[in-house]
Design a protein that fits this description.
140 residues; mainly alpha; 4 helices; 77% helix; 0% strand
């Protein structure tokens, strides 16, 4: 079930990139980003209020972990920018390559306090296949 939900997330992200990119065409790069995150803030606020969720002790959370919001803003900005030049599929494919390469480094070195998962030859095969797919997509 978890893998099905994760696949569904991919579908949602593709729709999000499309909608955000089109919205940027109607407004502007920065205004659309503010609008997108403003709507997100309103939505999650309603969910928290309706669900009566409580905050845990935020004083114990390391400061670095709050940078996710900053990363989210930069991600939406760059995705909206890329969308107008590359379209949905290439924007997402190149983003996935960046995620894959970063995750390989994080796993291999056990960064951020995670367990080390060494890089192996099977991952090289995956990288080659992804690289070939990107080449085909970029030169269609």
């Amino acid at each position: 079930m978890d893998k099905l939900i994760t696949a569904f997330i991919g579908l949602i992200v593709a729709v999000m990139v499309f909608c955000n990119g089109i919205l940027t065409g109607y407004t502007s790069l920065y205004f659309s980003n503010a609008l997108i995150h403003g709507i997100g803030l309103i939505t999650i606020t309603i969910i928290i209020i309706v669900g009566k969720y409580r905050f845990k002790n935020l004083k114990t959370v390391p400061l670095l972990l709050y940078t996710g919001g900053l990363v989210g803003v930069v991600t939406v900005l760059l995705t909206n920018f890329s969308f107008s030049y590359l379209g949905v599929s290439l924007t997402l494919a190149l983003g996935q390559v960046g995620q894959f390469l970063t995750s390989v480094v994080v796993d291999h070195y056990g960064l951020f306090g995670l367990s080390k998962i060494p890089f192996n030859k099977k991952k090289i095969v995956g990288l080659v296949i992804i690289g070939l797919g990107l080449i085909i997509m970029m030169f269609e």
